[in-house]
């Protein structure tokens, strides 16, 4: 991430060491990380859903953060990850999604507003809160279908990449055979 993106994502100009510490502190037993891969299996968008400790004020909450590579922006990937995170959180008993963002992070705040979140600004910072409905049989099935579709998509991209690698290898072999054949003819 470039410095401007780090500033928008973390609310400050995070150094490499600070980003590494953030990654090291991810609790994969508690939190969730979702991603979108392009056809070359490059991670182009990633979201973090951090479950908050329960408090008397809320049954359970989760904080959402997302990063999308500059070359992949404007395609709705951040919103897709937010929708998936909402469904995922809802099916785990979360009743409130929270987004902390800088007031200037228009893309993140637009995602929250479009989902129906209430956004409150306090100086240079904003907090968006979205109440989630309880899980239903329909939401559980929807999440299962989404997860299966994502797995199929990844496997198709992975297999296509293998086919491309095999084509490249066969092309090299064919060129090598042609070179040997041409050298023996002379």
Automatic annotation (TrEMBL):
It comes from the Bacteria. SUPFAM superfamilies: Acyl-CoA N-acyltransferases (Nat) (SSF55729). InterPro entries: Acyl_CoA_acyltransferase (IPR016181), GNAT_dom (IPR000182). Residues 1-135 form the N-acetyltransferase domain. This is GNAT family N-acetyltransferase. It comes from Ideonella lacteola.
